Amino acid sequence: MAQKFQLAGAVALITGAASGIGAALAEGLATRGCRLLLVDRDAVGLEAVAAKARQSGAAIETRIVDLADAEAIRALPAWAADRFGHVDVLINNAGVALGGRFDETDLEDFEWLLDINLRAVVRMCHAFLPMLRTRSAAQIVNLSSLFGLIAPPGQVAYCTSKFGVRGFSEALRHEYAGTGLGVTVVHPGGVATAISRNARGRRPPTDPEAAQRAAVEDEKAREAFGKLLTLAPADAVAAIIRGIEVRAPRLVIGKDARNGALIQRLMPAGYWSAIVRLSGGTL
After folding, report:
1. What would you measure as the largest C-alpha separation in the chain, in angstroms?
2. DSSP helix/strand/coil, 63
3. Do β-strands 35-40 and 60-64 pair in parallel, antiparallel, or remain unpaired?
4. CB under 8 Å, gap of 24 or more: what pairs does 218-223 form?
């Protein structure tokens, strides 16, 4: 596992490849000589990303997939084998957000988020493990979050999924220690993607006035969350690609993520109060 992972000529599959970190990963890995399998439910965005990445000369295949569909995930290894014969790097990047207090959250929305953020990661790894284990060197990269290290209020669903990705990834890495299969779990801080704009809010109340107030509050929450997303996707991707090459077990990306992780380690039970104080009470 100490040997540097060779990206040139490798086959990498990226979920959530139509925008944000996934799109930047496609471009970055293409320039390093990877052949790419790009997966997303956004057909227009996916083709735009693929067209840009092909300018580097990379061989790229795309597939429209709703990652909440377990059957669609089970079909992906056969598609990958048909296109390139194998997969060397599996990057589970796709993710969605759901804001609001837990008592204001519809459980159907909670399940929707878990399907994409957590269950799809588990299903993708389970589906591709037989193929990855045939390779002399292979790497799984699972995107968690700063919110897989700390748990702020108003993000119960998202934190549940990202803490789950963290635990799943760490246990999986321990199971394959000493083999050619490595597992990297990534904890980015606030990366400037569309996740806040696309986040679901709470289900609107039936009362029109209450529904209007809820809509305004949800929009303010999206704007506040969006202001925390300051790290350029390209900067996050540069760190992820370096992490793949050195087969890093864990990546904490961004000053906010590193600071949050440090405070959590120093104050495991009281870290949120400390973070609020350090922010001047703005959180």
Report:
1. 61
2. strand
3. parallel
4. 218/99, 218/100, 221/99, 221/100, 221/154, 222/99, 222/196, 222/197, 223/196
Tokens, residue 269: 């039970």
196 has pLDDT over 50? no
CA-CA distance, 270 to 272, in Å (whole number)?
A: 6
Structure tokens at 105: 């959250």
Q: What is the pLDDT of residues 42-85, one digit of tens each?
A: 999 999 999 999 999 999 999 999 999 999 999 999 999 999 99
From residue 152, give the alpha-carbon distance in Å to each of 5, 14, 99, 268. 35, 28, 11, 13
> What pTM was computed for the model?
0.87
Q: Where are the beta strands (DSSP E) in the chain?
A: 11-15, 35-40, 60-64, 89-92, 138-143, 181-188, 250-253
Active site residues: 158
What dihedral angle (degrees, nearest 10) is formed by the CA atoms of 126, 9, 192, 183?
40
DSSP, collapsed to helix, strand or coil, labels residue 252 as: strand
